[in-house]
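Reviewers of the previous submission asked for a worked example of the structure-prediction workflow described in the proposal, so we include one complete record here. The input consisted solely of the amino acid sequence. No template or homolog information was supplied to the procedure at any stage.
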Amino acid sequence: MNKSIKALSAVAAAAAIVGTSVAASANVMAWGDNTGGRASYTKAQINDNILGDKIVFNSISDGADGDEKNFVSARETGATGLWSANEITVSEGKTYDVSLYIHNNSPKGYAATAKNVIATFALEQKYGNTVTVEGYIDAKDATPSQYWDYVTFKSANGQNFYLDYVEGSAVMNYNEVDANGNITKKNVVKALSDSVITKSGVSVGDVPGCYAFSRYVTIKVKPVFTDANFTVEKTVRKAGDKTWSESVNAQVGDKVEYNIHYKNTTEGKVENVMFKDVLPTNMKIVGDVKLYNATNPNGLVKTGDIVKDGINIGGYDINGDAYIRFTAEVIDNNLICGKNTLRNWGQIGVKAITLQDSADVVVQKTCTEEQKKTTPTATVSSLPKTGPEAIAAGIVGAGSIVTAAGYYVASRKQLR
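From that input alone, the workflow returned the following structure tokens.
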């Protein structure tokens, strides 16, 4: 809303929003910003207009949830009570919520609105006994314009694990507020794109000043305790190029080549290795799918639907490996105006474990003013569902050695 209204009620008297009580250690500081360390303010100072016309996020030391600089926290899914703001001990088989708090500290309401605020989570690409999840707030109208904080996950007994993002789990909790700054509906829940874990993040909309307009962005993660005895790496290049990478820029009509590298790191031979591809919207496969390995150094054309059913790529000795390659074309089924990140996942299943890795094709769509009226313009990546349900639907079947009762998923390059 562009209309300015008078300043809202003082921060201390603002209407209640969705709250989270946070347990934090005063001796641990995980936060930061792009100015090198912002000042802290009390509610009394904010109410005395210490900020003036400046917009600042998450800088109140005695906020509704304690020190707002500790704005990323975690707890077990379904638990009640305190959230852990700095460190949480995890257990196998459980899922955890990670929350990112967003509060424009100005008391001036719509008159101090930060436009198109972006929230991002970054899961540490690591396999170890501690793994960190960072949260970022980007607000171009604020000073600082970027804020970050993190929470560390650790195992109880030092066992190694990696964190798997639960696809489709991102949501935002917020209040609906009318033009006069009055809350008309509390704790509205809105699903967000999986882009929240990519570099582009997701927009949480315009955020006016004061507690009533605060937001909580939450994702779910799952620790996976397993020693995977194989690796998976996916890369991409534009057709005709020589160099493979994790991301390329392309336009509608361009063709790109995908490469999935599997390697057996066990101490023995494995049989019936399965491959499946999760193709993003706005990409279509053209031509053959080829398998390259010691038996087929010049490439073997593989039949079968790699997207729907998956294919068996055979057995492999110790340190044996394989490359699966195919070409896809960029199409425009529902590209947004602006940046589109088309993420393609390659998945390998060996016995009871499935690992996956991704490569991106970035498409910049330029729209006319007329197109902008009917085409979304938010910076949302086109991401497929890549969680257990998607894998079970595609890999579990005839010839597969992955079972619905037992498999694991690695969502990024955590096991390199």
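The domain at 230-394 is CATH 2.60.40.740 (Immunoglobulin-like). We consider this example representative of the routine output the project will generate in years two and three.
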